Amino acid sequence: MTDSSAPATEPTGQPAPGTTDRPLRILIGADTFSPDVNGSARFSEHLASGLASRGHDVHVVAPSAGRRNGTWKEIYDGHIITAHRLYSWRWYPHDWLRFALPWRIRQNSARIIDEVKPDVVHFQSHIIVGRGLSTEAQKRGIRIVGTNHFMPENMLAFTGIPKGLQNWAIGLAWAAARRSFIRADAVTAPTRRAADYFEKETGLRDVYAISCGIDADLFVPDFTPRTENRVIFVGRVTGEKHLDVLLEAIKLLPADLDVKLDVVGGGDQLKNLQSMAQQLGIGDRVTFTGYVTEEEKQRLYTRATVFAMPSIAELQSIATMEAMASGLPVVAADAMALPHLVHDGENGYLFEPGSAEQLADRLEKVLRMPQEELDRFKRESLSIVAAHDINRTLTIFEHLYRGEPVPEALPPAPREHPAREQNSREPATEA
Predict the structure, then answer these.
(1) 229, 131, 227, 117: which is closest to 184 by C-alpha?
(2) E runs forming strands in 200-340
(3) 120 phi and psi, to 5 degrees?
(4) Long-range CB contacts for residues 336-344, cutoff 8 Å, separation at least 24
(5) Which residues of 243-254 are buried (b: 16+ CB within 10 A; e: fewer)?
(6) Tens-digit pLDDT profile for residues 74-105
(7) Angle 312-268-218 (CA atoms, 0-180°, nearest 5)?
(8) Do residues 215 and 419 make contact, with C-beta atoms less than 8 angstroms apart?
(9) Residues 161, 164, 170, 173: is their CA dihedral positive or negative?
(10) Which in 58, 133, 160, 231 has the greatest CB count within 10 A?
């Protein structure tokens, strides 16, 4: 990892031993992991299961999901990983978050690393688990990869820090991130904009932009004309998602469109937003589903007309990629990494963050589109998301783990998937 304020130094560890086709023993560290529902947890889960599917021996260190802690096997997407669940406490300002005890993390990290003897350690945040694993892996000369999913703004609402001290707290958080990530041989972020943001805040350089990736084959595009106008949001129902802006936009849409909104997900703002919908007079048109199964989520994507993402704090947005893989046009805030996915006027529209009026205007544009133009937007979403295939992501990380040159120019994986084409409900007359 290059430090912009000091001469470049030698990597802290050595490339993982062996040839490029030898399975690796990989230790993934995560402060949030399944059953948690957020972008970082989902990426860590899909990374672990995807690597296991390729024959690697995958271990995950994460806080326990309850009172039970220890080491055991867990199955994700049909693949077995070894989970090292750390004794954890509940963070009560948050509706479900648990954290490993920071004063025990170095001892636990040393014990697990010495038991597992990994070829590489890949940590997903610096807060607790990543700090411990990176410290102990560096001592042992083990190769380290770090991925940043962290934005301080996403946590401020759950810290109780007074507003006047929040900028100071953000500065401390980035300084802590620097101390952990500077130990890594390679640092990644989900998009180029997220990588640039990380470099600016930490002073580190040479951060790779590597998509979290999704398995697009799990989602079913449907090109048949809709019989109703349905807007969908999928994600955590929390303050930084700015769902109040989306509710206000739905209120502003013309009555003749008779728009319905599905808010898919749970979070600490659920009751407040349900109350707000009633106050705005749109309670009968907004469905708050809470947490749903993967199958139900896929069905809700498929039946929707357009996906809305009003959040201003997305380092990538897996939910937006899932919507695109479902063949949906997207209306999103012109903030952070969302413009990487939403190409204005091609597969959707961007709007000024916080502007309910602009969001309503862009949604109306999509909902009034002739079918031919709507289908063009839908196909463009499918085309853009093809570059975010999870298999490409896994291949790039395998190169990083081995200390090999990263094929940043890897072409997107071929999209000729017979099973996917069979499931896609596009009329035969479509190009």
Answers:
(1) 131
(2) 204-205, 208-209, 230-234, 260-264, 286-290, 306-309, 330-333
(3) -150, 145
(4) 336/193, 336/194, 336/197, 336/312, 337/190, 337/191, 337/193, 337/194, 338/309, 338/311, 338/314, 339/193, 340/191, 340/192, 340/193, 340/316, 341/316, 341/317, 341/384, 341/385, 343/380, 343/384
(5) bbbbbbbbbebe
(6) 999 999 999 999 999 988 766 667 889 999 99
(7) 65
(8) no
(9) negative
(10) 133
| Residues 336-376 pLDDT 10s | 889 989 999 999 999 999 999 999 999 999 999 999 999 99
What distance lies between CA 7 and its chain's CA centroid? 33
**Which residue is it, tokens 């809470």?**
290
Sole residue written with tokens 């079918």: 371
> Look-up: residue for tokens 């560890």?
13
Q: Which residues contact 386 (CB under 8 A, 6 or more apart)?
A: 216, 412, 413, 415
The answer to whether 74 and 81 have CB atoms below 8 angstroms apart is: yes
Kindly provide the b/e burial profile for residues 274-293, where b requires at least 16 CB atoms within 10 angstroms of the residue's own CB: bebbeebebeebbbbeeebe
Structure tokens at 194: 């997220």
Of 12-21, 31-40, 85-94, 417-426, minimum mean pLDDT range = 417-426
Residue range 38-48, pLDDT digits in tens: 878 889 999 99
Query: What is the pLDDT at residue 1?
Result: 61
Quote the pLDDT of residue 15.
Answer: 43
**In this predicted model, what pLDDT tens digit does every residue of 147-193 receive, in sequence order?**
998 877 666 555 566 677 667 677 888 999 999 999 999 999 998 88
pLDDT for 178 = 95
- Token code pair at residue 185: 């041989």
